[in-house]
Specification:
With 503 residues, the chain is mainly α. Helices cover 74% and strands 3% of the residues. It has a two-stranded antiparallel ribbon.
């Protein structure tokens, strides 16, 4: 079933490409929407059959390159299953949102590309072989490059090239680290489960440090953390709205998931040795991302920098969990559980924010906050949903972001009180930047930008836009009020990571 979940979108993409170009636009979008809905239904079936605390489930293994120790090995546990569900929810939202984009060019290729991108995301979260992980990691870069370059805004070609070169260079560092693990294992293998069980670099501090450096750099570029974040703002600014939603909501999680799936359990000694480095990198990302976001005048670029801020909380939690002293197992587990919950929360809320930012560009062709005023009176539904998304993103109680950040800070404070206390300032800065943005754009007398087509009234959200955004925010509220449904799946897997890290 897991293989069907991973490969079905690509099969549907191939079917779309076989249809003639003159096929009505509604057919392409309808097939895409149906495939995305089927993927979400399959994920729900897998979730329903998953036994919390039962370890890796739905495993499938097929020999692929046996002489090199490479296999097609996939599975799902409490770390990967929530991210698979997030992926399917976001791709379904993007498919629905595209119905409202009447000006989308080459709809057939656009839908096929997003279906293929969904396969790469699901495949990476399911992968239990390093080369399979690397394959999906690289294919996601290729797919997103074409999304930005083919359907982006004015400077899309340059932003797409920067994105590709930066992240592809990171993937090469990642591959070097994977080869280092392969050579250290006896017998040689790329299988993540076997490498985790074997702990091949135990007692080899220098070798482990070099492998962690290579893997850490590769994943830090994808996350991204400071100072590897510079590709992110232009990529988000120039990408179409649905591209930004997937880039922030899913692709960034590939980096943080890689830390949790590979770096921490396979290299426990090296991770403990250099835990303080990750704490500092996380803290710098939290504060730098928030401060630079505060200085932005472009709404979409501001949201992009808040992603650097939120990913910093996750890296801080991972580092603090490893640095926690003996006897603090509960704090270690709480920090990691909060980090995984933050991945899901950030994906939902930031995905919604980028879709709402796309509404601004669709109406008036600019993201500049100073160009807008008084939108609450003209478009009350847009204003209300933007306000909800902003308050949820800054971690207000009652939303999923509060649950995630509360666990991260509670689990990290005991071992790293100074760094964690400083990181709390990120919440204050985030609150300030979102409140300022809402005040500028939504309140006051009506003002619209002086741009082609801007003279028409600013229409409120269309039905497909509402159908795409409301469920994302609704899930953010649901997980803020009743988080146990997801936490019961995450917690046993987090405990398992902490046990491996303590070896």
């Amino acid at each position: 079933m897991l293989t069907v979940l991973v490969l079905l979108p690509t099969a549907v993409a191939a079917l779309l490409l076989c249809l003639p170009r003159r096929t009505p636009r509604a057919v392409f979008l309808g097939v895409w929407l149906a495939a995305a809905a089927a993927e979400l239904a399959l994920t729900a079936v897998i979730w329903a059959g998953y036994r919390a605390g039962g370890g890796m489930q739905y495993e499938q293994r097929v020999r692929w390159i046996p002489d090199a120790g490479v296999s097609y090995h996939v599975g799902a546990d409490g770390l990967s299953l929530p991210l698979m569900a997030l992926t399917c929810v976001l791709f379904l939202a993007c498919a629905g949102y595209t119905w409202a984009r009447r000006g989308t060019r080459r709809v057939r290729e656009f839908a096929a590309l997003f279906l293929f991108l969904q396969t790469t995301c699901l495949g990476l979260f399911a992968a239990l072989d390093l080369i399979l992980f690397f394959l999906f990691f690289d294919l996601s870069i290729v797919a997103m490059y074409f999304v930005i370059a083919g359907w982006g805004h004015r400077d899309a070609a340059r932003a797409a090239l920067t994105f590709f070169l930066y992240t592809f260079l990171g993937s090469l560092a990642l591959l070097l680290g994977f080869i280092g693990l392969f050579l250290a294992a006896d017998p040689h293998t790329f299988d993540i489960v076997e490498l985790t069980r074997e702990n091949p670099l135990a007692g080899r501090a220098a070798y482990g440090g070099l492998v962690l450096l290579a893997i850490g750099v590769g994943l830090a570029v994808k996350t991204p953390t400071v100072p590897f974040h510079t590709w992110l703002p232009p990529a988000h600014t120039e990408a179409p709205a649905v591209g930004s939603a997937i880039l922030a909501g899913v692709l960034l999680k590939m980096g943080t998931y890689g830390f949790l799936r590979i770096a921490m359990p396979v290299l426990p000694g090296a991770w403990r040795e250099y835990a303080q480095v990750f704490v500092v990198v996380g803290l710098v990302s939290v504060l730098y991302g928030a401060l630079v976001a505060l200085a932005q005048t472009d709404f979409k670029r501001m949201i992009a920098y808040t992603s650097v801020n939120h990913m910093g909380y996750i890296v801080l939690a991972f580092g603090a969990a490893a640095a926690t002293g003996a006897g603090a197992e509960e704090a270690r587990r709480l920090a990691v559980t909060g980090a995984v919950f933050q991945m899901v929360s950030h994906g939902l809320l930031t995905g919604a924010l980028f879709l709402l930012a796309g509404v601004l560009y669709d109406r008036c062709r600019t993201y500049e906050m100073a160009a807008y005023s008084g939108l609450a009176g003209r478009a009350p539904v847009f204003a209300a949903l933007t306000g909800v998304a902003a308050f949820a993103s800054l971690g207000l109680p009652g939303f999923s972001g509060f649950i995630a950040e509360f666990q991260i800070f509670t689990g990290s404070l005991g071992s790293r009180p100074v760094e964690t206390s400083l990181a709390v300032l990120g919440i204050l800065l985030t609150a300030g930047l979102f409140l300022r943005a809402l005040q500028r754009m939504l309140l006051g007398p009506l003002r619209l930008p002086d741009a082609p087509g801007a003279g028409r009234p600013f229409p409120d959200l269309r039905a497909p836009e509402r159908v795409a955004v409301v469920p994302l925010l609704g899930l953010g509220v649901l997980l803020g009020i009743a988080p146990r449904f997801v936490l019961d799946v995450i917690e046993p897997a987090s405990r398992g990571v902490m046990e491996l890290l303590a070896r």
